[in-house]
Amino acid sequence: MDTSIISFIGGGNMARSLIGGLIADGTDPSTLWVADASQEQLSAVKEHLAVNTTTSNLEAAAKADIVILAVKPQILSTVACELAEVARKHNPLFLSVAAGIREQDLNRWLGGNATIVRAMPNTPALIQSGATALVANNKVTQVQRNQAESIMRSTGLALWLESEAQMDVVTALSGSGPAYYFLIMEALEKAACDLGLAPETARLLTLQTGFGATKMALESSDTLEDLRRRVTSPGGTTEQAIKTLENGNIRHLLKEALEAAAHRSSELADQFGKDI
Ligand SMILES: NC(=O)c1ccc[n+]([C@@H]2O[C@H](COP(=O)([O-])OP(=O)(O)OC[C@H]3O[C@@H](n4cnc5c(N)ncnc54)[C@H](OP(=O)(O)O)[C@@H]3O)[C@@H](O)[C@H]2O)c1
Questions:
Q1: All structural domains of the chain with their residue ranges
Q2: What is the topology classification, in CATH, of domain 6-167?
């Protein structure tokens, strides 16, 4: 059993979700520490999860084999600079879940020689159905890679990228992605209501169809194109709808949407990284 001490810096939504996932996976809560600036936040964490808490980031980080940086991106530079001393003395693995903070900036704030895994989770991680992409710097050992992966897997899918340059696309695809699905479902629900369905019927059919289609695709080894073709009988109803969507250039629109999000992700990373 892995008895590594894991300390969370920031005890908000993402930290609580990871802690819940880790405990559900069998991690002993006494090996977990949470540091947060707010005593109120810590009391809330302690009420639901029997972990150790402190208001001192330094205290939590100094004890840890793995330090999970789970504060907002805007304050990560301040928090990381405070932890540079811990990086130098104890050299723990830093696992950052902060959106848009590049490894080179985090490493600079941590003193320039830190062991870092950068993770990009998404909001469904809060209900253990997330999708996380990971990248490691060259100080990370295989054991630490496995540890980082199993921590993130406690909130859903976790997979490794070939390079950090791919993080902007990941941010555009899975980071922002839940909002695209919500928009599409919102539009389908509204269209079905306009065509005569009761709101609750439209809502439930929309949601279950999205869930069912995703589950089918996950459980099948067929491509998405094959699955789509199989429900699109020649001369049938689906064919008419698909033709309308293709004529409206839905593929081009989605590509443009992803390009715009990836571009913004890169701009934000430049902005956050400038801090210090
Ligand atoms: N939530 C998601 O779905 C999601 C998805 C992808 C990535 N992420 C990343 O996960 C990170 C955390 O997000 P979140 O949603 O969990 O945010 P959150 O709920 O606001 O949690 C951040 C916590 O850090 C605390 N904090 C503020 N300053 C601190 C300091 N100096 N030292 C220690 N703790 C401090 C905050 O306390 P106060 O509330 O008192 O300020 C808050 O409890 C972010 O970097 C975000 O980019 C989140």
A1: 6-167, 175-267
A2: Rossmann fold (3.40.50)
Do the two domains 6-167 and 175-267 of this chain adopt the same fold? no
Q: How far is the CA of 10 from the centre of ligand 1 (A)?
A: 6
The overall pTM is greater than 0.85: yes
Is 123 a pocket residue for ligand 1 (Cβ < 6 Å)?
yes
Q: Encode pLDDT of 70-122 as tens digits.
A: 999 999 999 999 999 999 999 999 999 999 999 999 999 999 999 999 999 99
Ligand 1 near 12 CB (within 6 A): yes
Q: Which three-class secondary structure string do you get for the chain?
A: CCCCCEEEECCCHHHHHHHHHHHHCCCCHHHEEEECCCHHHHHHHHHHCCCEEECCHHHHHHHCCEEEECCCHHHHHHHHHHCHHHHHHHCCEEEECCCCCCHHHHHHHCCCCCEEEEEECCHHHHHCCEEEEEEECCCCCHHHHHHHHHHHHCCEEEEECCCHHHHHHHHHHHHCHHHHHHHHHHHHHHHHHHCCCCHHHHHHHHHHHHHHHHHHHHHCCCCHHHHHHHHCCCCCHHHHHHHHHHHCCHHHHHHHHHHHHHHHHHHHHHHHHCCC
State the architecture of 175-267 in CATH terms. Orthogonal Bundle (1.10)
